[in-house]
Amino acid sequence: MATLINGTSPETVEMMKATSNGVFQGESPLDFALPLVILQICLVVAVTRSLAFLLRPMRQPRVVAEIIGGILLGPSALGRITAYKNSLFPAKSLTVLDTLANLGLLLFLFLVGLEIDLKSLRRTSRKAISIAAAGMLLPFAMGVVTSFAFPEVTSSSGESNRAPFIIFMGVAHSLTAFGVLARILAELKLLTTDLGRITMSATAITDVSAWILLALAISLSGDRSSLLAPLWVLLSGIAFVIACLLIAPQIFKLISRRCPEGEPIDERYVCLALCAVLIAGFATDAIGIHAIFGAFVIGVLFPKGHFADAIVEKIEDLVMGIFLPLYFVMSGLETDITTISGLKSWGRLALVIVTACFGKIVGTVSAGLLSKVGLRDSLVLGVLMNTRGLVELIVLNIGKDRKVLSDHTFAIMVLMAIFTTFITTPLVMAFYKPSETTQTQDNDSYKNHKRRRKIESDEEEEQTHQLKVLICLQTVKDINPMVKIIEASRGRNKTKESFCVYFMHLTQLSERPSSIRMVQKARRNGLPFWNRKRDNVVVAFEASGNLRNVSVRSVTAISPLLTVHEDICSSADSKHAAFVLLPFHRRWRSLEQEFETVRSEFQGINKRVLENSPCSVGILVDRGLSDNDPEVASSSFSLSVNVLFFGGGDDREALAYGLRMAEHPGVKLTIVVISGPEISKSDILEAQETSLFLLDRQFLAAVKNKAAISTRFEERIMNSTEEAVKIIHEFCECDILLVGKSSERPFVSKLPVMMKMDYPELGPVGNLILMSTSVSVLVVQQYTTRNLSVVGSVSVAVVETP
């Protein structure tokens, strides 16, 4: 970006000194490069983050806020104030800011290259390839036609720029922003649907093709006084790629072998890899293409695995949080909307928007219909492919730097990129409402199919159905206690058909390019992105399934933490799960005998799942189950389980789960029936009216008749809250306690924790156990018809791993 906002070239600008002597020496920090660039970065981050927050309700990606923020800081808005421009963004400071922005862009393109797996790209389905081809060729042609409405082509003085300008316009029309599109799809819960997978695969192909065309356009936009110069640039670029293909993979593989997985990466190898990126950037810049191409090629050829993983972890936050917003702002500083004046200029803007949208949408829809995607899905696919963002700005900035695009054309194209990206989410939400069909299908299926929604059941036929449990994990440390629960829950029938476990790893969606890796579990379905490493969560649970004759499957759901409960509830409903098992949001530290919070957001997730679950729910508070290695033979497995039964549906569900565990030969079950003091006749009549009293008595009578011989029954009467604590202490000498979340017995409401519960999702008894003991506890809530499910109101897609 050589042209500055006031049109002054870098050669005529006085250079600034790096640091000042301070205000007490009579020097202003704004006259020196370092303090000024610090202030500029802080201003950029504050403005872009504030705009992103304001646009969040409209579900707009952060790139829109960053582009708008740059425009507001530039000559279109605040830049028109002379004092502001001369103080905060003087022409002599922009070379430093521009250099930092391009360095960040170079590193970002390296990270983007790390995401692309050429082997997977070759396995992309024909449907995605045809959609990508149509979604690129038609808008490219429309861009070429549109370019003839601009003075760069029509004026006689622009003959030397005519060919590169036409190509730049075609490329700018045909691009689709992969990273931005991934974020939009995730926000709309479409990323792991068939539609999302086709869109992402087609977008990847489109972007790779666009980069090749952009390299051609750059080679043509060089020194046009010699016909051989563009040819030399093109040939040198091809030679650079071939040399990298032959040399770089061998060097990186050698380094990767010296960095064993699971061990810290030596700093010198990270420095070597980053130096290779910088050298490649220097080489392509010297050739005359652009430094970002070298970084991108190195990223694509970099071996995918733990070494790449370590590099991403080290530099991604800095690049995404600081450097990349600078590039957007530099684009905004060069965007002067005031150059769009007059009927012709606004007509060109309207023409560009119409042709860009028409070419992308019509081309994609046509290919989608020919591929039998369906009209509605094809329309949504066309709107999604019309998304633009960072890559579009890169193309436009390179064109402006090469003096192929004028300030007027540049401003028009930037506004087109903002508009097409901004309308994507609203249009998709208008066209694509899968919840309507999902709800109808679900309602019809449930009319003709009885499914199991809880552990307790009066129907013998339903008890013989396969028990399906959805287990959610927050961290790797949740694996061991969950595996023990799985082993204890498999019951007496040792066939995989009797017990099926789905697990879901709860992962937050972020704005970073590594967020895309959350769909890497769907790689087998066609996404051209690499799997960083075999997920240790998957490995642990698959191993548990093989050892213990449990059918174990994984489901992948991609969402922000605010809406991940929708994924959990929808997955439980679609898989016909009878029980959802959640980990407590705090982790127990055995040595310190205290809790530490993993993430407070998970408490909200647990609460929302309890409110909306389509089946029974349990929250596991682990305080020792994970201390031992779960990978033991079933013959040596042992677990002591105590169930505290006060009465009510939740307590019956907890006891039903305990009885399921008691079928395992290694589980010892103790049932503790706790009743309150003698109650009056009116209380008995009221209890009988609600059938609560009778239900509990009938349930307990049935349990005593069918329970295993090894099951021990204890009955206790509590006359005070102190006695309740004593009873709990008496029976906490076990591996795990099972309790209901909400007891409908009047005496439970008198427990001391009822006045203030720190963890309302655990109920009064669960809170009392946490306050007065250090035993693990499973708090159970039974499904009832009043538990409203989010399924039907929200469409959630998951990918199942067989």
From TrEMBL:
Residues 51-428 form the Cation/H+ exchanger transmembrane domain. It is found in: Membrane. InterPro entries: Cation/H_exchanger_TM (IPR006153), CHX17_2nd (IPR057291), CHX17_C (IPR057290), CPA2_transporter (IPR050794), Na+/solute_symporter_sf (IPR038770). It comes from the Eukaryota. Keywords: Antiport, Ion transport, Membrane, Potassium, Potassium transport, Transmembrane, Transmembrane helix, Transport. GO terms for molecular function: antiporter activity. GO terms for cellular component: endomembrane system; membrane. This is Cation/H+ exchanger domain-containing protein. It comes from Brassica carinata (Ethiopian mustard).
